């Protein structure tokens, strides 16, 4: 040890290795290391290979850099809380010798939300779920009305900025800072990033946690409350606040995503208010945010200055990419903010000394825009050039000087690696789309299989398998949910079941279905056990049938779909009709058939639930585009879950009230199964009303005898989200 420096000298012969452990604190000789190097290496390899989804097989030439970027994002994630750091360093300068030196060792809500998009696109869902729950914990701790733009990785709110005057900084670039005063700023765009992440999470998970919905509602309410106010914007200017266009647009995004989630899952929300505010925002941005003089959307109201953040307008679907204002904005940004093939964020004075260099994520945003425009080859050229800004380890800084190849800003920078992943995936998706357009039509044998009503056994009788518990239905439901999320295509708004069918993970699902043969369904004794088990089986059976028979739009493409497909469970065959009409409807007659599902001597009669529950109708809708937001049905929670299913179904256009005409429009389920909900219409309407909001409930119960009933067309389309 020499003046605080540890010096180790050693020699190695060819083929030999030396391993060092750097440990903080004291360690006794007999103590084992917490995690050996071999275990650490294996952990990271395993984590990378757990990536699910159709995109992983298409990384092609970008595999090494996508993998490296993904590892960077994972390494910047604080495992105990799920918070995601913006970078691993403080005060590496954006401008040598200047004051643009910041501490990035915190989690910005915006940066973390962008990180989730990259994680989602590569099939890593648990990190996204962890971050959303961490953010929810922050909301519960501090209250939604004081939501900050950033927090410490442990969730601390006070990030007081201090200058370490005894340090001269990288290449004499003072000051060196710890803490970051930006935590005091107002940046309204964070609402949009949070809600965009929430929608993506629902896309991939197939649900929204009921406990999180009040939090998301409050985020949207904050957007309503603050959108018209000035703020410091995405770039955290130190001479603001101003009316930044991007901030306004992201408030619109928050409301757009909030309305989409609410409509998709039938969740309570002030939709009329949100729609009005969203319309007001768009109207004002189009009026004040676009400059005919600049031929572009501008950084802020009353200015002709350009800003690369405006490239996100089409990516966030504020306007389509073929809108002339969007196209002119992209063109002007390229013309005026690009230097040596790299984009700057802006050129306007921001209250700080020194001139920054090119901002790498802006190049990646431009690449995504060019892909949307169909200019894929040009996008690839810029992508390959931008990739050269990485160092020999494949790591990006925040900024880059293209003239001398110098990396600037904190390092490694999450924002830059996020941009790389998202741009790479957009290019790969575009190239894959070209291949899809040339795909062959369904084979003749598949066409005949759809039309000829022979039985389709989705698992086969097996002997010698280990005895299975009732949890098998939960395991299958969770695995299938995960697969649906991994193969969800956000661009098309549907699950790619064909790709799923060819995946290794689906083969694991098929193996698991074989274990149903060794489950004895007669051990299910009480109704709650039976309802939870059989509802889970019904819903996975429908999706499995869709995959097996390559359904494109609707199960109605398949002759006798609900009677043909089935699983062997305990050696007995069960079709969807057997489960629905035989077991869950207590062997009531099928609405289209004159006989009961199970004959008198059918041993499956022993499986029938003793007391019919009309709410099961709202849980058996995964053959249409109206699955409730429930991961799996649990015997201990079944009553609350069925209530959620009922409210979700009715709020998703299961019921529409036109009080002016005194007409109640109902789903055809209430026509097909009218007797299940009551012996007459006043009884049925009373039952239905209890699952609606206060306004509808009051109106319906006050007009039981004079309401006119009409039935809505049933939406059989599956494999889609509600737009």
Task: Give me the secondary-structure topology.
Elements: H1 37-49, H2 63-75, E1 77-78, E2 83-84, E3 107-108, H3 109-121, H4 126-142, E4 150-151, E5 162-163, E6 177-178, H5 189-205, H6 213-226, H7 245-265, H8 271-288, E7 290-291, E8 296-297, H9 312-315, H10 324-337, E9 338-339, E10 342-343, E11 358-359, H11 360-372, H12 376-387, E12 399-401, E13 406-408, H13 414-436, H14 444-451, E14 456-457, H15 471-486, E15 488-489, E16 494-495, H16 497-501, H17 504-514, H18 527-548, H19 561-564, E17 565-569, E18 572-574, H20 576-584, H21 616-619, H22 638-654, E19 655-658, E20 663-667, H23 669-672, H24 681-689, H25 694-702, E21 708-712
Parallel strand pairs: 14-17, 20-21
Antiparallel strand pairs: 1-2, 3-4, 5-6, 7-8, 9-10, 11-12, 12-13, 15-16, 17-18, 19-20
Explain how this protein is built.
The chain is mainly alpha-helical. It folds into two domains: 63-435, Glycosyltransferase (Alpha/alpha barrel); 444-612, no CATH class. 43% of the residues lie in helices and 8% in strands. A hairpin with a 2-residue loop joins β9 and β10. α3 (109-121) packs parallel to α13 and α7 runs antiparallel to α8. The protein is globular. The protein starts with 36 loop residues before the first helix and ends in an 11-residue tail after the last strand. The mean pLDDT is 88.
């Amino acid at each position: 040890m020499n003046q605080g420096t540890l010096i180790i000298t050693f020699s190695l012969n060819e083929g030999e290795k030396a391993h060092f452990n750097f440990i903080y604190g004291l360690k006794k000789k007999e103590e084992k290391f917490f995690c050996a190097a071999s275990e650490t290496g294996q952990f990271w390899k395993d984590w990378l290979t757990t990536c699910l989804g159709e995109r992983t097989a298409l990384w092609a030439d970008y595999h090494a850099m996508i993998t490296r970027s993904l590892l960077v994002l994972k390494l910047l994630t604080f495992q105990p809380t799920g918070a995601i750091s913006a970078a691993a360093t403080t005060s590496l300068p954006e401008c040598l010798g200047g004051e643009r030196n910041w501490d990035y060792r915190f989690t910005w809500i915006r940066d973390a939300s962008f990180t989730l998009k990259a994680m989602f696109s590569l099939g890593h869902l648990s990190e996204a779920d962890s971050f959303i729950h961490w953010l929810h914990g922050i909301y519960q701790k501090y209250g939604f009305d004081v939501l900050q733009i950033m927090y410490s990785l442990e969730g601390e709110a006070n990030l007081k900025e201090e200058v370490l005057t005894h340090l001269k900084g990288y290449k004499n670039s003072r000051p060196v800072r710890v803490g970051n005063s930006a935590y005091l700023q107002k940046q309204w765009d964070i609402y949009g990033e949070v809600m965009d992440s929430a929608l993506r999470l629902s896309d991939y998970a197939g649900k929204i946690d009921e406990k999180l919905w009040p939090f998301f509602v409050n985020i949207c309410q904050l957007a309503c409350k603050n959108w018209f106010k000035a703020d410091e914007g995405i770039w955290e200017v130190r001479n603001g606040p101003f009316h930044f266009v991007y901030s306004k647009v992201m408030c619109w995004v928050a409301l757009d995503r909030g309305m989409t989630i609410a409509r998709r899952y039938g969740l309570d929300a002030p939709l009329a208010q949100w729609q009005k505010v969203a319309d007001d925002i768009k109207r004002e941005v189009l009026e004040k945010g676009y400059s005919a003089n600049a031929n572009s959307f501008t950084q802020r109201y009353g200015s002709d200055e350009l800003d690369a953040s405006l490239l996100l307008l089409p990516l966030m679907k504020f306007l389509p990419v073929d809108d002339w204002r969007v196209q002119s904005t992209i063109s002007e940004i390229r013309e005026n903010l690009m230097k040596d093939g790299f984009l700057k964020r802006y050129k306007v004075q921001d209250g700080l000394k020194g001139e920054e260099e090119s901002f790498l994520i802006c190049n990646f945003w431009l690449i995504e825009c060019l892909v949307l425009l169909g200019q894929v080859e040009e996008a690839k050229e810029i992508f390959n050039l931008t990739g050269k800004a990485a160092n020999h380890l494949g790591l990006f800084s925040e900024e880059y000087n293209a003239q001398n190849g110098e990396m600037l800003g904190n390092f490694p920078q999450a924002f830059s690696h996020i941009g790389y992943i998202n741009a790479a995936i957009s290019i790969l998706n575009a190239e894959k789309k070209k291949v899809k357009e040339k795909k062959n039509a369904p084979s003749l044998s598949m066409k005949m299989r759809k039309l000829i009503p022979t039985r389709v056994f989705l698992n086969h009788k097996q002997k010698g398998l280990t005895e299975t518990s009732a949890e098998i239905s939960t395991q299958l439901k969770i695995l299938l949910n995960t697969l649906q999320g991994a193969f969800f295509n956000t661009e098309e708004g549907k699950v790619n079941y064909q790709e799923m069918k060819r995946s290794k993970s689906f083969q694991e699902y098929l193996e698991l279905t074989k274990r149903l043969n060794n489950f004895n369904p007669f051990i299910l004794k009480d109704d709650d056990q039976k309802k939870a088990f059989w509802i889970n089986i019904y819903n996975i059976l429908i999706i499995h049938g869709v995959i097996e028979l390559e359904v494109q739009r609707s199960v109605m493409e398949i002759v006798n779909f609900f009677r043909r497909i089935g699983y062997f469970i305990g050696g007995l065959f069960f079709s969807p009709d057997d489960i629905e009409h035989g077991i869950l409807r207590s062997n009531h007659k099928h609405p289209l058939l004159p006989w009961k599902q199970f004959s008198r001597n059918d041993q499956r009669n022993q499986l029938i639930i003793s007391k019919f529950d009309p709410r099961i109708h709202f849980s058996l809708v995964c053959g249409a585009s109206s699955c409730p937001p429930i991961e799996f049905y649990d015997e201990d929670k079944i009553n609350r879950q069925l209530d959620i299913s009922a409210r979700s179904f009715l709020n998703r256009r299961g019921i529409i009230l036109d009080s002016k005409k005194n007409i109640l429009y109902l789903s055809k389920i209430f026509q097909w199964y009218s007797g299940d909900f009551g012996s007459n219409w006043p009884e049925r309407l009373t039952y239905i009303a209890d699952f609606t909001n206060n306004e509808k409930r009051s109106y319906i119960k006050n007009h039981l005898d004079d309401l006119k009933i009409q039935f809505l067309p049933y939406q059989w389309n599956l494999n889609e989200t509600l737009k």
